[in-house]
Every structure is written in C-alpha cells, then in structure tokens.
Amino acid sequence: MRFKSRISRWGAASIGMLAFLGCSADRKSPSGFRLPDGDPIAGLAVVQEMRCHACHRIEGHDELPAPIADPAVPIALGGTVAVLPTDGKLVTSIIHPSHQISSRYAHDMVKSGDLSRMGDYSETLTVRQMIDLVAFLHTVYEARVGEPREGADWRMTRRGG
Ligand code: HEC
Fold first, then answer.
1. Core-most of 22, 49, 66, 117, by most CB within 10 Å?
2. Is residue 53 domain-shared with residue 14, that is, in the same domain?
3. Ligand 1 center–CA 17 separation, angstroms
4. Using CB atoms within 10 A of its CB, is residue 148 exposed (0-12), middle (13-18) or buried (19+)?
5. 19-40 tens-digit pLDDT
6. Could you tell me the pTM of the whole model?
7. What is the mean pLDDT of the chain?
8. Which of 53, 56, 105, 137 to mutate to test the pocket of ligand 1 (most atoms within 8 A of CB)?
9. Model confidence at 119: pLDDT above 60
10. Distance 74 CA to ligand 1 centre (A)
11. Residue 146 phi/psi, 5° resolution?
12. Is it the case that residue 158 has pLDDT exceeding 80?
C-alpha cells in the first residue's frame, strides 16, 4: 500500500496548496465590496473641484471647461460602452489608476514613467466624494444595445479626447 499512501500524501499537499493560494487571493477579492448609493449631482461638483475635466472630456457635459492637458488624454469618460462599468471598476480607476493602464495608447499619452498620468487621488478625495463621483460616472455611461461580445470590457469604449 505504499503507492496509495504516496497518492494521498500528494493529494493532501495539493489540497493544502490550493487552500493556501485560495486564501492569499481572497484578500484582494472584490467579494463583499458594496458602496452605499451616492448623489450624482454632488459627484459632478467633485469632478469640477478635482478638475477631472482638465484631462477628460465627459460625455453629455459640454458645460464643463474643455480639457487642457498636453499631450491630450485620449480617454473621454462616458458614452456608449459594450459593458457598463461596475462600482469596483470605477473606484479602481479613480483611486488606483495604475492598476490597469490601457495599452492601446502611446505611452506618453497615458503614463508618466510607469504610473498613470492620472496621479493619485487617495490622499485628496474623501470617501463621500468618491461615492458621489462613482454615482455621477454611472450616469454618463450607457450600454450598447444587443449582447456584449464575449470578453468585452467597459474600457473598450468609444474614445475621444
Ligand atoms: C492628469 C490627467 C488626468 C486627470 C486630472 C484625471 N484623469 Fe482619469 N485618466 C487619465 C489617464 C491618462 C487615464 C488612462 C490611463 C489609466 O487607465 O490610468 C485615465 C483613466 C480614467 C478612467 C478609466 C476610463 C477608461 O475608459 O479606461 C476613469 C473612470 C477616470 N480616469 C476618471 C477620472 C476622474 C473621476 C478624475 C477626477 C477625479 C480623473 N479621471 C482625472 C488622466 C487623468
């Protein structure tokens, strides 16, 4: 029965390994993440205060000053997208923008060194401002009619500076 016990030893080792990997991955899991409802009008005020429009054109909000960033940021916020962004995607884009930087643009247009040109809002936004900002951003995205393509992502949106 030596063979059998070797199998079970490997079995136990791999279950242990999976449990270990599972636990360490869970720490970063978005599971359990739930934002309270925000106020989109207050969110628009945050956009103005934080000057998001210095870099982004915002669909449907031509009352905001035009972007002034040089080189121009090739990413407009809002418009028709294949999949609507979730709270989690928006929060990550705002407070951890370098987590997933689009590789579809020339380096200098989206990055400064290795980081996003967007900078770091984690020291400047209050939690309430972030919640309202996310509520506002949800109002500017619209789902494209029809089934989303397999693997479609909200960032594959119509762009324009
Ligand atoms: C200095 C320029 C700059 C400013 C100011 C700026 N952003 Fe950005 N933003 C970027 C760049 C560059 C990207 C693309 C690279 C990336 O994903 O980090 C981006 C990406 C994003 C995205 C992801 C959009 C997509 O389709 O991929 C969101 C959402 C966003 N910004 C929201 C904001 C909000 C809200 C503010 C104001 C609090 C803001 N940005 C201010 C430069 C800026």
1. 117
2. no
3. 38
4. middle
5. 555 556 689 898 999 999 999 9
6. 0.81
7. 82
8. 56
9. yes
10. 10
11. 105, 170
12. no
